[in-house]
């Protein structure tokens, strides 16, 4: 369903390219080891050197800020760096306003370019600020978590949170380039790394049986950050995401397939108050439930949830539902923003690599699957 892209440069085996074709909003995703040290250079074919503002967390600045900035300076860019505190709470209008203040103090104009150096929190926040500062200025993504490499840095969803809900204020606004340096994953915690792998598994289930089998066969190499295996799964994941976004940039329908496992996952995250699981872990459990629901609805064989559970366990991800009240889970499902006209849309699996968007799943069917799970103590 998606096209394999040729290597970025024949003579540069360290860099791969995936293109995302969106007319005048098209851009490249460059994937390689150590390419954070070349961002200024890589940006040159797109922009004349002018002014860049790198926005990142203090800890990521300590690890990688200097290397990224050094190349911009070397290539003739005027460079500033702004730090924002770590954590989901930085995805706020308050934090965005602080960034607007900084940008105005630095006299940034519409030719200035923002660089999001970090995970999904930085990417979503910087993308939102870029979309709104002076009615929109260019930005690029330099993702440093596996989740942001394979998911949040690609596709142009930007947002901040509102006290009443996550990602409630945002814009579709595409970056001009994504520079994904696999080496940065070496400093990421195991927990965050494995959580990112859940999104890679998701791509296998929704679109690519070969990717799924590749993960089944090579999970040890992948857990150990083998750069060749990692390159393959990141490139394949980005190509799948690009292909989905190309077909439905603004999520009118088809892009929803990227939410596989997320309907249950969001309910689990919210009912455990975002403290028990990181996002990818909740998605892992959500995907298991979604495949069990698919089986119970007669869409797939028993083999699908069995293989998925085995793979997620091998990757060190949770597969069991925490002790939650199943009625509370149902209530939370109906509050998810993807609920349209009080119908819950589910992405159900037909076989590994093939799914169907369904809005006819009954509450009774969902309850049956939830109650069949041993880890639910109350009904
Ligand atoms: N825009 C989208 O399409 C999209 C898709 C999925 C998720 N998201 C958003 O992404 C966010 C989650 O992103 P995330 O999982 O990357 O979390 P994150 O950005 O909070 O990063 C997780 C932690 O890892 C640290 N970190 C990042 N890179 C590191 C590195 N290389 N070495 C050491 N530490 C590092 C961060 O400082 C942070 O503490 C959520 O807000 C979610 O809503 C957006
Ligand atoms: Zn996700």
Any overview of this molecule?
The chain is built from 13 helices and twelve strands. The chain is an alpha/beta fold and 379 residues long. The strands form four sheets. It has a four-stranded mixed sheet with strand order 1-2-3-10. A four-stranded parallel sheet has the order 5-4-6-7, sandwiched between helices. Helix 3 (93-105) crosses helix 4 (120-132) and helix 5 (146-152) runs parallel beside helix 6 (190-207). The N and C termini lie far apart (41 Å). Mean pLDDT is 93; it is low at 5-11. The chain binds nicotinamide-adenine-dinucleotide and zinc ion. Zinc ion (ZN) binds at residues 151, 199, 262, 279, 283.
Summarize the structure.
This protein is α/β, with parallel strands linked by helices. It has helices at residues 39-43, 58-74, 93-105, 120-132, 146-152, 190-207, 209-223, 227-247, 262-271, 279-296, 303-314, 326-335, 363-371, and strands at residues 7-9, 12-20, 27-32, 51-56, 78-83, 113-118, 139-143, 157-162, 165-172, 177-181, 346-351, 354-358. A hairpin with a 6-residue loop joins strand 2 and strand 3.
